[in-house]
Amino acid sequence: MFKVRKIAGIFVLVALLAAYMRSSESTKRYVKHLLKQVPYLPYRYFI
Amino acid sequence: MPDYDAIVIGAGLGGLSCASLIAKSGLKTLVLEQSDIVGGCCSTFELKGYKFDVGASLVEVTRPLETLFEMLDRKREDYIDLIPCDPIYSFITEDGRRFSYPTDIEETTKVIEQIAPEDVEGWKRFSSIGIEMINRSMDAIMLSPLNTFKEAMLMGIKNPPVLRYLPTFFRTHQGVVRSYYSNPTIQASVAYQSYFAGAPPELGSGIFGFIALSEHLGIYYPKGGMIAIPQGIMRAGSEYGLEVRTNAKVEKILTQNRTAFGVMLEDGTEITSRLVVSNVNAQVTYLKFIRPENLPEWAIKGIASYKPSMPCPMIYVGLKTKPDLDAHHTVITGSIDSMNEVWNKYYVLGIIPKTAMSLVCWPTEADPDLAPEGHHILNFLCNAPAPYAPLGDNWDRLKDSYREEAIDLLDKHVMPGVREHIDIVEVSTPLDFERRLLQPQGSIYGLFSDMTTLAMFRPRSRSKAIKNLYLTGSSTHLGGGVPTTIASGIVTSRYIIRDHT
């Protein structure tokens, strides 16, 4: 079961990476911008 | 015994709306305003017989303002005279074409049909979905507290249809626009509003894609200038005992054991209260008025993580003649790609972009009494993002040259020969806005707005870090703008009335 999950996880990751690589420069900037904000979200939620 | 029940720092729209409502609920309330006039960004100053608006230039979506006056048991029309403006916008494209959008949706359809018949269907879908969304979301999203997941879930349970619009928050502004329109001119005419939320179309939340549509519900200009709105709210509040002191600059918020109990003014005077409301930018409130040493570590990390929205220099022009314009607002706009390019290749690198993208407001079209007889006013908002710290220079030094460049733009794109007709010109740079409005980096749109800084990820109306501290204004949900800041005042007052009466 664990092995199946691991393979599924890798598959999803690869799919996401492929989608990112194929996206426009503009979308890439948007994704990068959002990813940079993620670490702050827990702090922002409480402030 | 404290001097007041509530002290409100800042007489902006959020502060005055909140203060009036809590004064009505019986709380002895004092508003402290650092400037000599009320309104903050929604204000008007006089210079040689001309009344120039500081920043805000119209009211769209009047529902929060009407709700405020209903809650105050007053009739808005007895306090503020709103003049309808139609058409809502006139556009000047990169290649010099001009067209206007009337308020009426059907009439706008005809305009779009002339420019891009292929986008009529998209416009019909956009307007039908958008108007329904705006009407359904008004009370649910604008006038309800959304500080926590619990409040957001409650809002969703009470208003299930609103959940349909949730994915719009996660899309980009340009994503929403492009899903309805294919013609670059039409796209540009509904994409520039992204800058109103302080972000380029590729980063701003898709929810702001509907700002353009909300204006088809009607846009209005208050008789007497934008200051008439805060003055009207203040007058209604004063009938419930609200006290407003101008030229009263707050130095710090007094706290003990992470509980606010008053303020200290610049001259050292201390005024105590049961609670403090800050209408000042949330970062200034926490990092300057409260100070980091009085805050928990998580609060410092949270508040410091926000970025200000883009600053916009503003040029105020007094004209000796009537400008050849069609609408209260004229937008000089470029394509979506050029808007993003200006942001990425200039703004983020600290370079002032050489672009015409801007917003020209003509308030004397609605209210001729703002200028000497036969004269007119143009408030020219250089909407193209301008960096707070231009590379190797600063705004105090650049002020004169920037003014001349802006007049050149007016001359070239809006009103040929404008120089001959200019009676007076004044400039507000990002530094001026920072000093005048206490907005870090002169960001007149408040905090940068995207999906990671909206709703429960925006500073809370009721502080969790400091007890008895409340926030309102453009830093809080839903961000900058006349209706949104009034709505934030209403939301904050609801917390206070629940907690303290």
Word description of this protein:
By secondary structure, chain A is mainly alpha-helical. Helices cover 85% and strands 0% of the residues of chain A. The model of chain A has no long low-confidence stretch (mean pLDDT 90). Chain B has 501 residues and is an alpha/beta fold. Chain B has a domain of 214 residues: FAD/NAD(P)-binding domain (3-Layer(bba) Sandwich). Chain B has 17 helices and 19 strands. In chain B, strands 1, 2, 10, 11, 12, 13 and 19 form a seven-stranded mixed sheet that branches. Chain B has a seven-stranded mixed sheet with strand order 8-7-15-16-17-14-18. A three-stranded antiparallel sheet of chain B has the order 5-9-6, with no helix packed on it. In chain B, α1 packs parallel to α10 and α1 runs parallel beside α17. The longest helix of chain B is centred in the first third of the chain and has 23 residues. The radius of gyration of chain B is 22 Å and the shape is globular. Chain B starts with a strand and ends with a helix. Chains A and B meet through α2 and α3 of A and α12 of B.
